[in-house]
Amino acid sequence: MIFIGPLPPPVHGMAAANQAVLDRLESDGWKIEKLNTAPRTLSRSLFARLGRLLPVLRAWWRLLRYNTRNRKTVVYLALAGGWGQLYDLITVCICRVKRMRIVFHHHSVAYLNKTYPLTCLIIRAAGKDSGHVVLCDDMRKALKTCYQAPNVVVLSNGALFPIEKSSVQRPKVRTIGFLSNLTYEKGGGIVTALAKAIKDRSWPLKVVVAGPCVDDQLSSELKAAEAKGILQWIGPVYGNEKEKFWSTIDVFIFPTQYQNEAEPLVLWEALATGTPVIAYRRGCIAEQVAEAGVIVPINENFIGKALSVLDSCIKDTAYYKALSETARKRYANVRRQCEADWNTFKLLLKRGLDAN
Description:
The protein has 2 domains: 2-154, Glycogen Phosphorylase B (Rossmann fold, 3-Layer(aba) Sandwich); 175-335, Rossmann fold, CATH 3.40.50. It is built from 13 helices and 12 strands. The chain has helices at 13-27, 46-51, 53-65, 85-97, 117-126, 137-147, 188-200, 216-227, 239-248, 265-272, 285-289, 302-315, 317-350; strands at residues 2-5, 33-36, 74-79, 101-106, 131-134, 152-154, 175-179, 206-210, 232-235, 251-254, 277-280, 293-296. The strands form 2 sheets. Strands 2-1-3-4-5-6 form a 6-stranded parallel sheet, sandwiched between helices. A 6-stranded parallel sheet has the order 9-8-7-10-11-12, sandwiched between helices. β3, α4 (85-97) and β4 form a beta-alpha-beta unit. This is Glycosyltransferase. One of its GO terms (molecular function) is glycosyltransferase activity. Residues 166-330 form the Glycosyl transferase family domain.
């Protein structure tokens, strides 16, 4: 198998997922040739963008020189979410000329809200024998609807990043948590406003915010709220500090407004610890959380809905305990399904490899 796509460093969601796929395939005995297209930096400057072409050119050169005579070859391609698809189109054309079968891994929902001509061209150029891997069933349906893509299978990030956490018995709601790279787009401003609304109601709840923030305005807003006792901002958390965060959180909020949000790993972490989730509906989030929390439609007021849910949790501890237990069961069920999905994914890769 030939892999084409970005690998760490630098570290970002797609690169980490790609590395996790390769690590697990290699542990299962797969022989993989890796064509790493990762740039040296995630900078969006013109110079950096031009520099991203170099690893792609190297990948094209190696593809053109690859000997496919008398053997079947499958190419596993991590599809870009934006204009990087221009490079992917050329990659697909080279693979087709070399008679290589292509399996796409879709990490982004950026092109799944409507039909985009470039994505449509890529999928058609790949042919009917191509395969497609998505993160959830909602993505599968969207890919089918927008592009009539063939051979689509679901492989959740839960299969790539198994989480071993101990569930915490939570008798009642005391602490609300939020963990993210803190930006307004990710919901940082909404969380601050929600914390203020909780304090104004004199509810016996603590709001803890975790994660780094490079936005000066949001950083100032968080510090000001902390100074007034509205919330606690503990900054980035890793290792034992992250474990402590999850052990003290009773409800996790995730009001992301990020357009390309797909399947946040942080939500699997919440469910693995038996923590109910209140989140905006984006990407795969509704399917992730299911009955283990409350999903807020993106056009509705998140703060109002969250306050209503929290009020119910405070007044009805049985309701809250049921949500927490559902979260634990949800993650356990997903882990079992992920193992079956992993085997289906490998069958998709293997299809036709042994044919002469």
